[in-house]
Amino acid sequence: MTKDKILVARAIFPDILERLVEHFDVESNQDDAVWNKAHLIEKLQGKAGVFTTGGDQIDAEVLDACPDLRICANMAVGYNNFDIDAMSARGVLATNAPDVLTETTADFGFALLMATARRVAESEHYLRAGRWSRWAVDMFAGADIHGSTLGIIGMGRIGQGIAKRGALGFGMRVVYHNRSRLAAALEAECRATFVGKDELLATADHVMLVVPYSPATHHLIGASEIASMKPTATLVNIARGGIVDDAALAEALKAGRIAAAGLDVFEGEPKVHPALLDVPNVVLTPHIASASVPTRRAMVGLAADNLIGFLTRDAPLTPINLDAIGARRRAAR
Ligand code: GLV
């Protein structure tokens, strides 16, 4: 039996690539070369499946140019790099990588919050620059985490993990805002109170963004939202670039309108708004919230298993648009 052809668009762990090679005729990008859209389209010719990261865009133009494609397996939980409607319309399955990264990403939300509020990165740069000649009582004095109010925008699995860490580990009062309110039992488990977005911004000492990116969440936090936060507050974005207006944030940080920010994601990343690089009270990390070794292996493994499950047994593990694909298949019968 001839094997399906697949493309692995980025470098992945060699043993997981081997697993894919057992099932498929695999073309891979183990040099991790940067491919533009035309190159991706060329590489996708004749491929039934593709392994993607969150940086690989699959849109209508790509799909129309690659008619053999049946599945796009993203190794990220977020999938705003996929045009799901275009995929569903063409009968192409999309899968993502939920759950396996929840706890690691929630851990990182806290890492970034603490680094930001307690000025860890700023003080480390100061020390490394050889500027520490004398200790002082107010040196790099920041904001407390314990006992403060944590506001979480986006209360999916990762938001819930952050809420539990805040309430149970740090004695924080946790408020959250989400498209829909959690069931009472889940709210109680997270020890979190549902509030409107305006109330959250006005009352939280620390605001954490964990909401998916969509046109509806584009610049959810801009100049006026930042202005409504406490001047002592911190803002942490581990969600997606584009949810915060980075230019407005840089301006607000420079003017001291809020105390500090921690950003793991950026508009147009890997580019970073140059004004952010010039302000000291922001901690910047290169989209690494899920980057522990076991979790990155689990994410890559899940995307690989989605390719194997769907193309060999018609049984993907974590499909996004299976219903739409099924309806299309039924209509074609
Ligand atoms: C990372 O950003 C993800 O969506 O998994």
Structural class: alpha/beta
**Helix segment tally:** 14
Average pLDDT score: 97
Helical fraction equals 25-40%
What number of domains?
A: 2
**Order of adjacent strands in the largest pleated sheet:** 8-7-6-9-10-11-12
Describe this structure in words.
The protein contains 14 helices and twelve strands. Helix 1 (14-23) links the parallel strand 1 and strand 2. It has 333 residues and is of the alpha/beta class. The protein has helices at residues 14-23, 37-43, 60-65, 84-89, 102-117, 120-128, 157-170, 184-190, 197-203, 223-227, 246-254, 274-277, 293-313, 322-332; strands at residues 5-8, 25-28, 49-52, 71-74, 93-95, 149-153, 173-177, 192-194, 206-209, 234-237, 260-263, 282-284. It has two domains: 5-98 and 293-332, NAD(P)-binding Rossmann-like Domain (Rossmann fold, 3-Layer(aba) Sandwich), CATH 3.40.50; 102-284, NAD(P)-binding Rossmann-like Domain (Rossmann fold). The mean pLDDT is 97. 40% of the residues lie in helices and 14% in strands. Glyoxylic acid binds at residues 54, 76-78, 101, 290. Residues 54, 76-78, 101, 290 line the site of glyoxylic acid.
